[in-house]
Amino acid sequence: xxxxxxxxxxxxxxxxxxxxxxxxxxxxxxxxxxxxxxxxxxxxxxxxxxxxxxxxxxxxxxxxxxxxxxxxxxxxxxxxxxxxxxxxxxxxxxxxxxxxxxxxxxxxxxxxxxxxxxxxxxxxxxxxxxxxxxxxxxxxxxxxxxxxxxxxxxxxxxxxxxxxxxxxxxxxxxxxxxxxx
Length: 181
Ligand SMILES: Cc1cc2nc3c(=O)[nH]c(=O)nc-3n(C[C@H](O)[C@H](O)[C@H](O)COP(=O)(O)O)c2cc1C
Description:
Elements: E1 10-17, H1 23-35, E2 40-44, H2 50-54, E3 56-64, H3 78-89, E4 96-102, H4 116-125, E5 129-131, E6 134-135, E7 147-148, E8 151-152, E9 155-157, H5 163-177
Parallel strand pairs: 1-2, 1-3, 3-4, 4-5, 4-9
Antiparallel strand pairs: 6-8, 7-8
This protein binds flavin mononucleotide.
Flavin mononucleotide binds near residues 65 and 111.
């Protein structure tokens, strides 16, 4: 018998996020709530494997920026630190990725949501199609490496000082992604 070896693709959206226990997880759970558990799976990066990437075609990937204002290290989230070597090996060809990032432009105006760029560069380097870019106008910040072609490469969220805006920001963003993921 010939084994065609067709992978059993999961048709849901993988909401891949880290770290657990803070604002990023809070937002990931909100996204799940809004999209519905029948449409997406919540996967902390600390539990993710290379197969997690190969099994899905659509991703919402999120993290927080902690400490990159010094750029002494690339990402101080331990969950992401542990996952990055696996993430860098994954193939994103033909896959769609939307990115969200937790940050705080009031406390870190020069490095607002910088770490979204780490995720972006990796998936773009592995031929993903990145969707869900966001206009910069609605954010008062000084600088960010998470801007490409005058737009944020994903959805910036500030749970420290703009918590009241999170819900509508997520809803607007998910509406813009509708039928794309
Ligand atoms: C030590 C420290 C450094 C931070 N550095 C940045 C930064 O460079 N840029 C930014 O936008 N936010 C920065 N933040 C804000 C966090 O990204 C924000 O609080 C986020 O909501 C944390 O999410 P988490 O609880 O999921 O890690 C920093 C926060 C801390 C505590």
